[in-house]
Amino acid sequence: MTEQGEVRYGTTVIPYKVSRSARRKKTIELTLDTLEGVLVAAPMKATPEQIQAVVSKRASWIVQRSVDGLMMPQPKAFVTGESLPYVGREVRMEVSSADVPRVHIRFSHWAFTVTVPDGMDGEERCIAIRSAFVRWYRRRARERISQSIARWSPIVGVAPTAVKIRDQRQRWGSCAPDGTLRFNLRIAMADSWLLDYVVVHELCHLTQRSHSRQFWAGVEKAMPDYNSRRLMLREVGPRLVL
């Protein structure tokens, strides 16, 4: 079981994960990971209080670094005033209740209008709104990815047998042995410059399964500035969340 904890810095909650090692004798080391957040390496004998004290001492630094995308944002409450990214821009949401059978999302003039059934509140409401956004982003991801594949397949020289969109946390895409490409619906949140990189990356995996020199040479041939896009995706990716 993963050992976890959290500290508060002002109004910010900083969650962290702890891994213990018998080799580590005294020092408690803290690192930031773009996917996992705050990771703490600690000796087997370190107490939870000692670990928490180290994280608290570094809280200011952690929050500052979160500006660079190295901390995962807190889960959305899906209330008026919050925003979600789409095509590289933050889109504000307005949430209200009405006599409707299910959550409805309307995107217009760079704003989300979210209508929730009367009487729906608490965790049920949050889950229902998130599910509705998952469906909304899934449709937009399919549209944008299909357009990108149509553009880049002739350049790369390959085409997938099928394309599927998934709600997943870590991978932006994957390539199956049968030629099926799977994409994370969250890529619809990114601008086209980054979405195209993910598409080209997966198209190249249709001929080169591993991240070999040949693979990266193929990516560079199709997209000479791929590394700039790759680095940018690493920076902004952790902020593209539901």
CATH class group of the largest domain: Alpha Beta
| Quaternary status | single chain
Q: Uncertain segments of ≥5 residues (pLDDT<50)?
A: none
CATH superfamily of the largest domain: Metalloproteases ("zincins"), catalytic domain
Strands, total number = 11
Number of domains: 3
| Spatial extent as radius of gyration | 21 Å
What's the CATH topology name of the largest domain?
Zincin-like
Q: Give the strand content.
A: 25-35%
CATH architecture of the largest domain: 2-Layer Sandwich
Percent helix: 25-40%
Indicate the structural class: alpha/beta
Distance between the termini: 25 Å
Major sheet summary line? 4 strands, mixed
SSE succession: EEEEHHEEEEHEEEHHH
Instruction: Tell me the number of helical segments per DSSP (H or I, 4 or more residues long).
Output: 6
- Return the average pLDDT rounded to an integer: 89
Shape: flat
The order of strands across the largest sheet is 1-2-4-3
Task: Provide structural commentary.
This protein is of the alpha/beta class and 242 residues long. Helix content is 36%, strand content 28%. It folds into three domains: 3-66, no CATH class; 83-135, no CATH class; 140-239, Metalloproteases ("zincins"), catalytic domain (Zincin-like, 2-Layer Sandwich). It contains six helices and eleven strands. The strands form three sheets. It has a four-stranded mixed sheet. It has a four-stranded mixed sheet with strand order 5-6-8-7, with helices on one face. It has a three-stranded mixed sheet with strand order 9-11-10, with helices on one face.
